[in-house]
Amino acid sequence: MDSSFNYEKSITRLEEIVGLLEGGELPLEESMKLLEEGTRLSAVCYEALNSAEQRLTTISLTDSDKED
Amino acid sequence: MYVRMLIESDKHLRSFWLQGEISNLTVHSRSGHIYLTLKDEKAAVKAVMFANSARMLKFSPKEGMKVLVRARATLYDAAGSFQLYVEDMQPYGAGALSIAFEQLKNKLRLEGLFDESHKKPLPDYPRRIGVITSPTGAALQDILRILKRRCPALEVVLCPVLVQGENAAAQLTAAVRLFDKRQCADVIIIGRGGGSAEDLSAFNDESLARAIYACSIPVVSAVGHETDFTICDLVADVRASTPSAGAEIVSPDKDMMLEHLQRCHKRMISAVAARIAMEKLRLSALRASAVMRSPKELVHIRRMRLDSLYDRLKNSGRGCIDRERARLGSLSAGLDALSPLKVLARGYAAVKKNGFLVRSVKEVQRDDRIEIIMGDGSLDCAVCARREKDNG
């Protein structure tokens, strides 16, 4: 998964697209572009939800002492 | 001086514990020294606690409070009085920790650290869960288990700390600050499994409370105990009764998220399908219209329009010509009246010499041959004489 991927942002955009498409006020061509974007977003979100491996990283206080 | 030396050299009086009730309490506001008299049923002794020791107190002494003090004895030369230097003091009876806890709780409440209005909402879809707990405790295992079940895609960022003992509070505080500084989590769970009141004391630390209050990332306090709230519970944005409950609270449910995602997807597809169906309808309505059905009709209509325009042009052209013709007629009638031929017809004559019109008698000499033109013909004549008109 792309590290810049943000589920919340993606799902929010997807909801926005659904709203726009259901509003039906956009030119057809634009609607098709949105559909394409929405399909891509939902695929990425789906993948993110189903990536089954839990990842555990550790940050340690001593590292931060060195930083400071 | 000898007495003082005597007193200060006595090893029993150098450091000892004493129990008593506080009276005549004065806290010197400028120096921070505390003056008091310790008394029991039978005796009383003056005591002073210097500011550097007083600052270390975890509670504020109150008049009438029963305390346990560690002190050394001395003679105060100026007053000639025997008195104690108090080095440490703890509330006696009610339990040092609980009194200090109540006092700190009140102080922080008054400062607004527990205000609901300051509490941050938890993110709906966090990506990274920060966990501050012992790396070896059951709490971490509980949290990981719950998160894995509910939403395995979540990333867990652990900051391992001691959760009890002398350094626990400092480490917990540092961990909260570290997450805040690095912004490496969307929500933080801070906690440990259950324990006695003493075990939980690190979660009642004032610095920790302030760090949590200042933290820009939402904090869930998950200290395992059902009865008393820790200060950490009170200041946190959300309080969970156990680490497992904390993990439940922060994690979105994967199945619900999937369902939501699928619903979005479906709605999107059906919205577009409906749109396309509508466009098709629109298109077929257009194709059914007269013009599209027989394009010749369009040409026909255009031609009719062209014809009518041509007629109008023609008519307006003709009118224009007629008008000009009439104008020309009247003009030529006027012109006709002025024609020399008409003048000649009325009996006047014109004289020409060598084919040029003669306008003056001076152009003609005697014996010149001239031509006289009349309305119905001309005469060739010779000039017999010339008479000029008198210019008088």
Question: What does this protein structure show overall?
Answer:
The complex is a heterodimer of chains A (68) and B (392). Chain A is built from 3 helices and 1 strand; from the N terminus they run ααβα. Chain A is mainly alpha-helical and 68 residues long. In chain B, a hairpin with a 2-residue loop joins strand 11 and strand 12 (356-357). Chain B folds into 5 domains: 2-94, OB fold (Dihydrolipoamide Acetyltransferase, E2P); 102-252, Response regulator (Rossmann fold, 3-Layer(aba) Sandwich), CATH 3.40.50.2300; 256-288; 293-334; 343-382, no CATH class. The termini of chain B are far apart. Chain B contains 13 helices and 14 strands. Chain B has helices at 2-9, 11-14, 51-54, 96-111, 138-150, 168-182, 206-214, 231-235, 243-250, 254-288, 290-293, 295-338, 340-345, and strands at 16-27, 34-39, 44-49, 66-76, 81-91, 128-133, 155-160, 187-192, 219-223, 238-240, 350-353, 356-357, 369-374, 377-382. Strand 1 (55-58) of chain A pairs parallel with strand 7 of chain B.
Compute the number of helices of chain A.
3
Low-pLDDT runs of 5+ residues of chain A are none
* Low-confidence spans of chain B: none
> Per the principal axes of the C-alpha atoms, what is the gross shape of chain A?
elongated
CATH hierarchy class name of the largest domain in chain B: Alpha Beta
Could you give the order of strands across the largest sheet of chain B?
A: 1-2-3-5-4
Number of strands of chain A: 1
| Tally of contiguous helical segments of chain B | 13
Largest sheet of chain A: none
Distance between the amino and carboxyl termini of chain A: 32 Å
Remind me, CATH topology of the largest domain in chain B? Rossmann fold
